[in-house]
Write a structure and sequence with these properties.
Elements (H helix, E strand, L loop, with lengths): L23 E6 L2 E6 L7 H29 L8 H22 L22 H14 L12 H15 L4 H19 L21 H21 L1 H14 L8 H13 L6 H7 L3 H13 L1 H9 L7 E2 L2 H8 L8 H4 L4 E2 H7 L4 H15 L5
Length: 374
């Protein structure tokens, strides 16, 4: 899930000839795995240092995974922001592996099922990322008071589509807005409604909004509600029921109101630009990435949209680069972290960790359009 850190804005192998990397031999540690390097090899001092750093980062990642699992299974109190240390350990593991493969390209292995570029992740560590996701599912479980929906994916698409119509889009372009918004839901919470946030005490709910963002979205929805009622009376009545149901509950923990207010807060104002965005970015996943950047770095993204050269627009503000890194963009390895600027095309390409989420969203959207029930 994306994570923001400020109120103003919210992550080819070359040959080394006869130089060979040491093979990996796995040993089991509980339900996890830990690597042991076996076999002789002749490494330069730089390569040896990179290998040692990676081994230590991998061990640290295994250690924090085991620690959190033990705390959860024994019902021990978790620290504040329990996911932060786990997240940072994962970043360090992937960063150290990228530095290792930069120093020793023969260590680049086979593709992995997460779609992470092999230079950044050893596919033998897939069980570790499985455990990582399982821990976050527990740490980010909705509160007992959360109000779920039986049609969470349809809700996102229906709300986004009618909002886009109210903002002046025709039916075809409004459908694109609905598809993009479903991508946001998957990007923020893996498609899990009413999620908490193990890395932040501010952002919560199905679209991971803060309290002020939620209030702003509610205010904007109230202003547009008469148009919504005219366009879709049945959806408007559903909204009335959900508003009454939420009552004094934090509206971010009613799935319907969380999505509604999240979209109205930041994305509804961009919906009129969907036709131009689709022309500039014909790839649906790129479109979703751009709208995710409205979550992460809203001001530069709006500036890029106004520039007339969306993909070529360059940012170089260190703060903005920091926000990107805190959301897993240019975050892994010394070479990525050393970047001081990037164009939006480069940023979109660097958002590869979002690809699997957006592919899930596209598949779910196709199911909905085919009339399959959730």
């Amino acid at each position: 899930m994306a994570i923001r850190t400020s109120a103003a804005a919210r992550a080819a192998a070359l040959s080394l000839g006869l130089l060979l990397a040491p093979p990996l031999a796995w040993t089991v540690v509980g339900s996890l795995v830990s690597p042991a390097i076996a076999g002789p090899a002749t490494l330069t001092s730089e390569q040896s240092a990179a290998l040692k750093t990676y081994d230590n980062a991998l061990k640290d990642f295994v250690s924090i995974l085991r620690q959190r699992r033990a705390q959860i299974d024994s019902r021990q109190p978790l620290p504040d922001l329990p996911g932060q240390a786990v997240y940072l350990a994962r970043v360090e593991m992937m960063s150290a592996y990228k530095d290792l493969t930069d120093a020793l390209p023969t260590r680049i292995g086979r593709p992995n099922r997460f779609g992470i570029p092999p230079a950044y992740f050893d596919a033998d560590n897939e069980p570790l990322l499985d455990e990582y996701r399982k821990l976050f599912d527990v740490m980010e479980a909705p509160p007992a008071s959360a109000q779920s929906s039986g049609t969470p994916f349809e809700d996102v698409v229906d709300l986004a589509t009618v909002i886009a119509r109210a903002r002046g889009l025709d039916a075809a372009d409004a459908t694109v807005a609905g598809r993009i918004s479903l991508g946001l839901f998957f990007a923020e919470t893996d498609g899990k409604q009413n999620a908490g946030n193990a890395r932040s005490n501010t952002y919560k709910g199905s679209l991971q909004t803060g309290p002020s963002e939620d209030r702003n979205g509610r205010r904007k929805w109230a202003a547009i509600k008469p148009s919504i009622t005219t366009l879709d009376p049945a959806l408007s009545r559903r909204d009335d029921r959900e508003e009454a149901r939420a009552a004094n509950l934090d509206h971010r923990f009613n799935h319907w109101t969380a999505v509604r207010d999240g979209l109205m807060n930041a994305h509804a104002e961009i919906f009129p630009q969907v036709p131009a965005i689709a022309r500039a970015l014909p790839n649906p996943i790129d479109q979703m990435k751009l709208f995710e950047l409205i979550q992460i770095i809203p001001t530069p993204t709006r500036a890029a949209l106004r520039s007339g050269n969306l993909t070529g627009y360059r940012i170089s503000d260190p703060r903005i680069m920091g926000y990107l890194r805190n959301n897993s963009v240019f975050a892994f390895g010394r070479a990525d972290r050393a970047r001081t600027s990037a164009t939006f095309r480069e940023i979109l390409d660097a958002m590869w960790l979002f690809n699997a989420k957006f592919e899930q969203a596209l598949a779910k959207f196709a199911e909905l359009k085919a009339g399959k029930r959730e």
